[in-house]
Amino acid sequence: MKSLTFTRCMFWFGILFLYLPMVILIIYSFNAGRNVQVWAGFSTHWYGEVLRDRQLMAALGRSLRVAFFSATAAMLLGLLASIAIIRMKRFRGRGLLSGMVTAPLVMPDVIIGVSLLMLFVSLQQAIGWPQGRGLNTVFIAHTTFCVAYSTVVISSRLRELDESLEEAAQDLGATPVSTFFQVTLPIIWPALLSAWLLSFTLSLDDVVIASFVTGPGATTLPIEVFSSVRLGVSPKINALATMIILVISLIAFTSWYVTRRIDIRNRRQQLAYQREME
Fold first, then answer.
1. What residues does the ABC transmembrane type-1 domain cover (predicted)?
2. How far apart are CA 232 and CA 197, in angstroms?
């Protein structure tokens, strides 16, 4: 009984530790005063200020574009890497490929940022590309480290996939390509969605790597916020953070709901297939 009470207390302590700062931030985003530490009344004034701040909105737009394309590219590359690592049994370089792809997971962001900066500078001197640093270099950098996370998520799901389903489809005359699109892809779709969302969040949240590879006119939202916070926390930052939390929460809930529905449908299909085989 005491153990159960202690476990429950630690659980609620962990919940408060994780989410209480967010709750305080959301509450003070409606503060009418300019001082973020003193409550001066309820107001939505700062939300309007955020929407009227062109520099902040431009940085948000750049961050969303980079995060979208980086997450999409990382998901596709992670899928290809996962297929090579899990499905290509005769490929002797599977272990080396797995280590190289997942290496950014254990590397500090500073090391990744410096190495990519040196790479872009060397390429510019050698072939004249890229011309300076901007959104293209940020996109490449974010895709590079997001591929590692996508590969881990997708490969774990692909490893658990029952290969007899693919073999049965091929025995019935399906080509490897049609087997992938009609059998494999619908089953691993939740993992692809999870990998995309994780990569999108990591790209949208990155400060360290982007600070090395970005340039004038290509400042992302995290860098813009970090620069503003160094001069003092503005109530606009609280309002912006609340808007981002709301959007991410809606995306996470939608992802959970869609993934749950897909999992239920796939389980029903697998049970129906097993009953037919019996």
1. 60-255
2. 31
What span, in angstroms and rounded, lies between the C-alpha atoms of 180 and 170?
A: 10
Q: With beta carbons less than 8 A apart as the criterion, state whether 146 and 239 touch.
A: no
Cα distance between residue 174 and residue 182, in whole Å:
9
pTM score, whole prediction: 0.86
Alpha-carbon radius of gyration of the chain: 23
Most confident of 125-139, 222-236, 263-277: 125-139
Assign residue 232 a region: left if phi > 0, alpha if psi is -120 to 50, beta otherwise? left
Token duo for residue 47: 């939300």
Please report where in the chains the tokens 């005491």 appear, as a residue.
Answer: 2
Which token pair is 52? 């009227």
To 5 degrees, how large is the angle CA 85–CA 87–CA 88?
75
Answer for the pair 222, 63: CB distance below 8 angstroms, yes or no.
Answer: yes
CB atoms within 10 A of CB 70: 26
Q: Is the pLDDT of residue 81 over 80?
A: yes
Distance between start and end Cα atoms, the chain: 46
Residue 94's pLDDT is what?
Answer: 85
CA distance 135 to 93: 33
Q: Which helix (H) or strand (E) holds 146?
A: helix 135-160
DSSP, res 129: -
